[in-house]
What we know:
There is one protein chain. By secondary structure, the chain is of the alpha/beta class. It has helices spanning 17-28, 38-49, 53-68, 81-87, 109-118, 127-143, 159-166, 168-171; strands at 6-10, 31-33, 75-78, 102-106, 148-150. The longest helix has 17 residues, at 127-143. It starts with 5 loop residues before the first strand and ends with a helix.
Amino acid sequence: xxxxxxxxxxxxxxxxxxxVAGLLARRLGWVVARPFTGAxxxxxxxxxxxxxxxxxxxxxxxxxxxxxxxxxxxxxxDRHWVTMLSVLPQRCWPGWLPxxxxxxxWADPLTTLARVSARGETTRNTLELHQCSCALFxxxxxxxxxxxxxxxxLAPDRALATLRAQHPTLLAPWI
Length: 175
C-alpha cells in the first residue's frame, strides 16, 4: 500500500496551527497527526533541557515516521520539521529535509501570548519567549520559502478560505 499523502501545518505555540490542521483534515477527510505529544513531548523537553540534540532528533524522527506510515486517506501534521529546525542545531537539519508540503501558521507575539494564556498555560509563556520564537519561525519560513498564513486577525471560520485564496497551489492536489 502506498504511503498516505502528507501535508504539514507548523508554527509556534498559539499560532493557529492546530485549528487550521483540524479544519483542513475535516475538509479533506484526512487524519490529524500530532507527533510531539504525550511521552514524546516529555522526552522532547527533557532532551532540550539536557542539551541532547542527537537524542531529541532520534526521538522526534521516530515519532514522525510512525505517523507518516499511517494507513489513512491522508495525514495533516500538526507540527513537524519546522518545529524541529527551530530547536535543533543546523548539523541535524539534513535529517529533516527534504520536507513534505508545508504551511507555516504565524501570529504576532502579543496575540500568541494571549492565546497561550487563554489555554491556561504558564510554562514557557512569556512575551519575550514568544517574540523570539515568532521571529525564529518567520525566519525559517523565509529561508525555506514556505507559505505563511498570518492568523493574528483571522477567525477560525475564515482560515480555510484565506488559505485557499492566499496559497492556492499548496492545496491544489487535494482541493
